[in-house]
Design a protein that fits this description.
Glutamyl-tRNA Synthetase, domain 3; aminoacyl-trna synthetase; ligase; 4 domains; two-stranded parallel sheet; 507 residues; 43% helix; nucleotide-binding; Rossmann fold; mainly alpha; three-stranded antiparallel sheet; Glu-tRNA-ligase_bac/mito; Glutamate--tRNA ligase
């Protein structure tokens, strides 16, 4: 590409960052890195009434946890700063007045009550009120009013807004990198407010001005902004600026495929919709996060990348470096992407296997009081045996508790299945054999017991099922010989003796 690629992620700090926003940030990041470009974070906080304390820090923390940090933004490489729109508000009025002077915008003095009366009047006639070419000449604005009256109102401090003057009878030809060519009849467009009476710009003006001043080359954003594309392109044209290339990402849909994914869906179906846990500063309500629920950042990146994009192959596992290499906007889908919480678990199970055992062991130890005095190196050996059956760290204790505590009870169905008339005799003999094994390695245990079973023509299950029951308290768990090796000879013999006592007392 001829221009240095610059993209931006521009969230509003009105609460926690939804995973739809994380996906938008991810796609911007992938595109920027693929083209050796710059990923910019801009905080769009012009609507101060919706500002939520802590939301900006949450956004930054979420991006960092996902390993998709911004290159430029608040407090970081502020080449085109400031990067909070509230700190740039002194810029926008001049640009709004520039549009007035060029005839592309006008002052409007209509009160909200007057506009509501017009809306009600239109509704009673079965019509929809749109403030545009059709009626702006009859409304209270600088198009319909004499210039001296307009200047008097402004000088007098009357409330006003600045509206864009959408053209009449034109066809706009727009291009979207995902959706292709789009045509819009300007007659159906309303004259959007660009500048408000409180001295702050609306999203539309601030967005365009900032993208231009920050030299943004590609705007990759959610589908919900597609209806604004016509106005934004017209604003670029009105200013005489080169517009960036636009790409509008598909919606993330509910698991049912019907409607946009919301926090309510996550609460109802039992999965998070935010990357990190969030505590509402006003209500103290806590919303779950993927990090706290035990998901790995690699999971989130891989999972979100496939919500609306695919590489055109059967490959589903991509690390961040591979995604940067393979990502292509032309392979982003137009239709909505159905959110599948089970697929997120599938990815997490995969990335669980790639985690370092020592790191997992440290986290596991920290999460369970029962492991406080256990050597972390021993825990790491246990983790290596069980993690193939784990999806989350929370699964570890259920899969491994018998490595750390002697079973106190036996699962009823397992006991009935494993214990036969001759089980006590067999286990007693097994106990003697174990006693005589000097090298208590997995290999020695396995070879000795299997040789004895074969030589005595005993069914393998008649030995291994009750032995597993003695060790685990159930018929679940990793390889029996691994368990025996890790818990050691003395503990193995202790557990066999306990089962023998239980068998004896049950007869």
């Amino acid at each position: 590409m001829s221009d240095q690629v610059r993209v931006r992620f521009a969230p509003s700090p009105t609460g926690p960052l939804h995973i739809g926003g994380v996906r938008t940030a991810l796609f911007n990041y992938l595109f920027a890195k693929q083209h050796s470009g710059t990923f910019v974070l801009r905080i769009e906080d012009t609507d101060q009434t919706r500002y939520v304390e802590g939301a900006e820090d949450y956004i930054v923390s979420a991006l960092n946890w996902c390993n998709i940090p911004f290159d430029e933004g608040p407090g970081k490489n502020e080449t085109y700063g400031p990067y909070r729109q509230s700190e740039r508000k002194h810029l926008y009025k001049a640009f709004a007045e520039q549009l007035i002077n060029s005839g592309h915008a006008y002052y409007a003095f209509d009160s909200s009550e007057e506009l509501e009366l017009h809306r009600n009047d239109y509704e009673q006639k079965g019509k929809t009120f749109i403030y545009n070419w059709h009626n702006r000449g009859k409304l209270k604005n600088s198009i319909s009013l004499p210039n001296d009256e307009v200047q008097h109102k402004i000088a007098n401090g009357d409330d006003y807004v600045i509206r864009f003057k959408s053209p009449q009878g034109q066809t706009l030809h727009l291009t979207d990198s995902i959706r292709g060519n789009i045509t819009i009849d300007t007659n159906i467009l309303d004259d959007k407010v660009l500048f408000k009476s409180d001295g702050m710009p609306t999203y539309h003006l601030a967005n365009i001005v900032d993208d231009h001043l920050m030299k943004i080359t590609h705007v990759i954003r959610g589908e919900e902004w597609l209806p604004s594309l016509a106005l934004h392109q017209q604003l670029y044209d009105a200013f005489g600026w080169k517009a960036p290339q636009f790409a509008h990402l598909p919606l993330i849909l509910k698991p049912s495929g019907k409607g946009k994914l919301s926090k309510r869906d996550g609460d109802k179906l039992g999965f998070p919709v935010f990357p990190l846990q969030w505590k509402d500063p006003k209500t103290d309500e806590i919303s779950r996060g993927y990090k706290e629920d035990g998901y790995f950042p690699e999971t989130m990146v891989n999972f979100l990348a496939f919500l609306g994009w695919n590489p055109g192959t059967e490959q589903e596992i991509f690390d961040l470096e591979q995604l940067v290499k393979e990502f292509d906007l032309t392979r982003v889908h137009k239709s909505g992407a159905r959110f599948d919480p089970e697929k997120a678990k599938w990815y997490n199970h995969h990335y669980m296997q790639e985690q370092n055992n020592a790191d997992l062991a440290a986290d596991f130890k920290a999460s369970k009081a029962e492991l406080k005095d256990i050597d972390v190196n021993y825990i790491a050996l246990v983790v290596e045996l069980i993690k193939e059956r784990a999806t989350f760290l929370d699964d570890f204790w259920g899969l491994s508790h018998f490595f750390f505590t002697t079973p106190a009870v036996y699962e009823e169905k397992a006991f009935k299945k494993a214990i036969k008339e001759d089980t006590a005799v067999i286990l007693t003999e097994v106990d003697k054999i174990i006693t005589d094994i000097n090298d208590f390695s997995k290999e020695a245990i396995e070879k000795t017991l299997k040789t004895w079973i074969t030589e005595n023509a005993i069914g393998f299950g008649k030995v291994m099922m009750p032995l597993r029951l003695a060790l685990v308290g159930d018929l679940q768990g990793p390889d029996v010989f691994d368990i025996m090796f890790l818990i050691g000879k003395a503990e193995t013999k202790k557990r066999i003796a306990l089962l023998l006592n239980t068998i004896a007392s049950s007869n």
